[in-house]
């Protein structure tokens, strides 16, 4: 998150920090909704459309994919509160359970080769028609 007082941001940087915080809040809401077993069982609305960030990450968070979250933490005393909040955020993300499955059908070597040969013939025939 972007702490305006701590970073002493002004002008465009301040607006950028506010936008970052707004996106992180929306992402936190999505992560909470996806990670909460009781909400998932009730088919509660997941607020993906609340920010551009959550809209972009929709397939990664609740879709058919494996997602990795890297939490950047600091051992410094001055960053203790932000580090704790980051770890809580990451823990909520860890509770999201996706079950990714392969989307394509597995072709054995011989049928894949036959398919490629057939498509090449069709391609050559179409090029001759031009």
Quick structural overview:
With 130 residues, the protein is mainly alpha-helical. 61% of the residues lie in helices and 0% in strands.
Describe the structure.
With 130 residues, this protein is an all-alpha fold. It has helices at residues 4-7, 12-35, 37-41, 52-56, 58-62, 80-94, 109-129. α2 runs parallel beside α6 (80-94). The termini are far apart.
Comma- or semicolon-separated keywords:
130 residues, mainly alpha, 7 helices
Share of helical residues: 55-70%
Structural class: mainly alpha
Strand content: under 5%
Ranges where pLDDT stays below 50 over 5 or more residues in a row are: none
Order of helices and strands: HHHHHHH
How many strand elements?
0
The largest β sheet comes out as:
none
Question: What is the overall pLDDT average?
Answer: 85
Q: Please, how many helices?
A: 7
Distance between the termini: 58 Å
Query: Compute the gyration radius: what is it?
Result: 23 Å
**Tell me, what's the shape?**
elongated
What is the strand and helix layout of this fold?
Layout: H1 4-7, H2 12-35, H3 37-41, H4 52-56, H5 58-62, H6 80-94, H7 109-129
Helix pairs in contact: 2-6
């Amino acid at each position: 998150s972007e702490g305006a007082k701590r970073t002493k941001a002004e002008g465009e940087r301040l607006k950028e920090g506010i936008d970052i915080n707004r996106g992180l809040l929306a992402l936190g809401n999505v992560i909470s909704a996806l990670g909460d077993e009781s909400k998932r069982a009730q088919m509660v609305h997941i607020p993906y459309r609340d920010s551009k960030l959550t809209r972009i990450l929709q397939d990664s968070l609740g879709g058919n994919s494996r997602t990795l979250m890297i939490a950047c933490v600091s051992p410094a005393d001055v960053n203790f509160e932000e580090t704790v909040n980051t770890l809580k955020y990451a823990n909520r993300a860890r509770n999201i359970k996706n079950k990714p499955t392969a989307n394509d059908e597995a072709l054995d070597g011989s049928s894949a080769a036959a398919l490629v040969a057939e498509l090449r013939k069709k391609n050559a025939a179409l090029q001759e028609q031009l």
